[in-house]
Structure formats: C-alpha cells, structure tokens
Amino acid sequence: MEIVYTPNAPKPIGPYSQAVKVGNTVYVSGQIPIDPKTGEVVKGGIKEQTRRVLENIKAILESAGFSLNDVVMSFVFLKDMNLFSDFNEVYAEYFKERPPARVTVEVSRLPKDVLIEIAVIGSKG
Q1: Which residues of 56-86 are buried (b: 16+ CB within 10 A; e: fewer)?
Q2: CA dist., res. 10 & res. 102, Å (int)
Q3: Which of 31, 39, 59, 62 is 20 to 30 Å from the Cα of 74, by its Cα?
Q4: pLDDT for the residue 31
Q5: Each residue of 16-50: b (16+ CB within 10 Å) or e?
C-alpha cells in the first residue's frame, strides 16, 4: 500500500489521504472544488466546480502514475440533481472515450457547502 500525495491538489482537511495505491489500483478520496493554490472553493456554479474537482482528481491520478483513462469507477455526489445536466456536460469533456462506470446521487450537504464531490477508482489491470 502506498499513500499518494501531490501539492497540485488540495491538502486533505481531515484524517484521510488524497489517494491510496494498492498494486495496479488507485483509490482517490472524494474531491471538492478547492483550488490547491489558494485553498479556497472556486467561484462559479456547477460547471466551474465540476471542472476544478476533475482537475484535482487528474493531478492526484497523475502523481500516482495513472490518468483519467485509467478510471474504472466514479462516485458523484451532487447538492441538487437539477444540476445534473450541466455537471454531465463538463464530466463528458474529461471522459470522452471509454467512460467509467458511475454512481450519481443527490446529497443534502457537502463539505464547505460546495455543489459537488467526486471520488474515483483507477486501475491498470
């Protein structure tokens, strides 16, 4: 087991790792739309927040030797399911070919009252 950390994604704000690599698999913790340079939630709506979350995930995956193409499963938590269409539009930009399996649910509240959180599992097998 290897703990994954990159300064190119937000520092964990609790007792968890950005990701954990086990063999050919990487488990990326839920990411919210925090700009790693400022430590603040990005300005804007669901599209801007989704883009920031996916850029954070991309940075973590790359630091572990993976890419978005290696993502096999994603878990999406939306503050409001009415945001689904706009979220999906941005998400599709990042997963053009071979999109991963996905779970998307609406939740009542997320850390820092953001609109979205995404966790992923990547595999090179």
Answers
A1: bbbbbbebbebebebbeebbbbbbeeebeee
A2: 23
A3: 39
A4: 98
A5: ebbbbbeeebbbbbbbbbbeeeeeebbeeebeebb
What's the sign of the alpha-carbon dihedral 99, 104, 110, 113?
positive
Contact 116, 76 (CB under 8 A): yes
Q: Say which residue the tokens 């850390």 belong to.
A: 111
User: What pTM was computed for the model?
Assistant: 0.97
**Measured on CA atoms in the order 54, 64, 4, 11, is the torsion positive or negative?**
negative
Alpha-carbon span 115 to 106, nearest angstrom: 10
Please report which confidence band the pLDDT of residue 125 belongs to, taking 50, 70 and 90 as the band edges.
confident
Instruction: List the one residue out of 111, 50, 87 whose CA is nearest residue 42.
Output: 50
As given in the structure block, the two tokens for residue 91 are 């998400």
One-letter identity of residue 10: P
Separation of alpha carbons 51 and 93, rounded Å: 9
Helix (H, G, I), strand (E, B) or coil at 80: coil
